[in-house]
Amino acid sequence: MMLKRCSVVLLACLTLTACGGVDPNSPLGQRKAIFKQMLKTSEDMGGMLRGRLAFDGQKFADGAVKLDALSHEPWKHFPQVKETDDTSARADVWEKQARFQELARQLEGATGELVIASNAQPLRVETVQGPMDKVEAACKACHTEFRNH
């Protein structure tokens, strides 16, 4: 009897957990996945620059290329009309599209500059610190203006 009761409780918990998630195929799910990849990539790169991780020039350069590719992706998953999903994006994303797109282009430009700086051989922290700072500043500018924290 106890096993049956525990099984029912476990099944109920799993069912409720499944209902609370974001559909990974929805625009919100798509952009959240991309932003998580961007965060993971930039955290690893920042860790190398700040001494939390050993600096590996090839891994950093690969991360720059990945971050640049990712920086072009999330914007297409912001529909023209604000969805009803629980998003951390402010309504300003949809109300101030020109500004939002301007900041998106700034991030794309900054990641492109980081890729160029990462092509210098041998790659050194001093070479990529400034361009990485610019990428981080572009992220922060958009978050400050358009994201609910």
UniProtKB/TrEMBL annotation:
Entry's Gene Ontology cellular component terms: periplasmic space
Xref: Pfam families: Cytochrom_C_2
InterPro entries: Cyt_c/b562, Cyt_c_II, Cyt_c_prime
Residues annotated as binding heme c: 139, 142-143
Record flagged with keyword ATP-binding: no
Taxonomic superkingdom: Bacteria
Record PTM text: Binds 1 heme group per subunit.
Gene Ontology molecular function: any one: heme binding
Residues annotated as signal peptide: 1-20
Gene Ontology biological process terms from the UniProt entry: electron transport chain
Alphabetized UniProt keyword annotations: Electron transport, Heme, Iron, Metal-binding, Signal, Transport
Keyword Transmembrane helix on entry: no
Identification of the protein by name: Cytochrome c556
